[in-house]
Design a protein that fits this description.
The protein has helices spanning 2-13, 29-34, 37-50, 55-71, 76-93, 98-110, 119-132, 134-146, 152-164, 169-181, 185-193, 200-205, 216-238, 242-252, 265-278, 282-291, 297-307. It is mostly helical. The relative contact order is 0.07.
Length: 310
């Protein structure tokens, strides 16, 4: 259940909720939680009391309570109940908002029944979402069936999704990561490489089958850059496609102002150094490692391991 609540919160952090001019304005959710979940909880509880008809406030509250549930043991079920009630209220207040139904369906898919999860209700929400936003409904279905032991339904969905959204970086990044996690590196590289051209987002936006929101282009660009980084990471994992991986990471390092969801440049330098070592190019690897300033334990460990290979 902990991983689910982290996923729900991450989805919220990566998405924007368009506001009506008359609605109260909330700070971005990631800024709200940076001060600590307890303070965020106090703030959002007060907000929904003051603005009980504000759907976005209830959506925020659902995500904050979900995060609290993921970090709690004693109070996890209580927080899960509050999260569910908040998502339900957000949908009731704005039933046409795709993100609210997405969060509610995700809750029911992933939370155990003791915490309020209900698969039948999850599928009802998916069906309702299909009428609003078929793309995000398809994403939910892919997530559900990817975890099933029988991959027949998942593979059929993948074929259908690629036919409908062949250039959408959001889809291709998801499929690439799924293949990478299954260690199908060839398939993973195929998905990632299909959406890294500079004009990919414009071409994907021209697809009449997607619903375009104010943040759709931004979300596509975030996914496109993630694919660029993952081409390099996959090359490290597979120890193949070294030149392709090197080129992709070099391009990634040219991107300024990376989003908080992207791997920082120092991770890209570490991956690139690893590829140069695999390609028998220790001088280039040494230069890259000298530029890295490890910011966490995982980065320090990787930096030390690569340095020992020089």
């Amino acid at each position: 259940m902990r991983m689910f609540f982290q996923i729900v919160l991450l989805a919220a952090l990566l998405s924007a909720c368009p506001l009506q001019a008359s609605e109260p304005i909330l700070p971005p959710l990631d800024e709200l939680v940076q001060g600590g979940l307890d303070d965020a909880e106090d703030f959002i509880d007060e907000h929904v009391k003051r603005y009980p008809e504000h759907a976005q406030g209830h959506f925020y509250r659902g995500n904050i309570m979900a995060a609290q549930a993921g970090n709690s043991t004693i109070w996890a079920l209580s927080y899960a109940g509050k999260a569910l009630a908040s998502f339900e209220q957000a949908v009731a207040l704005d039933p046409q908002h795709h993100q609210y139904r997405l969060a509610l369906a995700s809750f029911h898919f992933a939370a155990p029944s003791i915490a309020g999860g209900n698969l039948e209700e999850a599928w009802r929400q998916v069906e309702a979402l299909k009428a609003i936003d078929p793309f995000h409904a398809m994403q939910l279905e892919l997530t559900f069936w990817a975890a099933d032991d029988d991959k027949t339904r998942y593979q059929a969905l993948v074929v259908d999704a690629l036919q409908r959204y062949p250039l959408d970086p959001r889809l291709l990044f998801r499929l690439g990561m799924s293949a990478q996690n299954a260690k199908d590196y060839s398939q993973s590289q195929q998905h990632f490489s299909a959406c890294i051209d500079d004009d990919t987002v414009d071409r994907a936006l021209a697809n009449p089958q997607i619903t375009v929101y104010p943040d759709t282009a931004e979300m596509m660009e975030l996914a496109r850059l993630n694919c660029l980084y993952q081409i390099g990471r996959t090359a490290v994992l597979s120890e193949t496609d070294l030149e392709t991986g090197i080129t992709a990471l070099q391009q990634y390092l040219q991107v300024d102002n990376l989003h908080r969801s992207h791997a920082p440049h120092d991770w890209a330098r570490l991956r690139l150094a690893a590829l140069h070592l695999l390609a028998q190019q220790p001088d280039q690897a040494r230069l890259l490692l000298a530029q890295v300033k490890p910011s966490d334990d995982a980065m320090k460990k990787e930096h030390k391991a690569l340095s020992r290979k020089l």
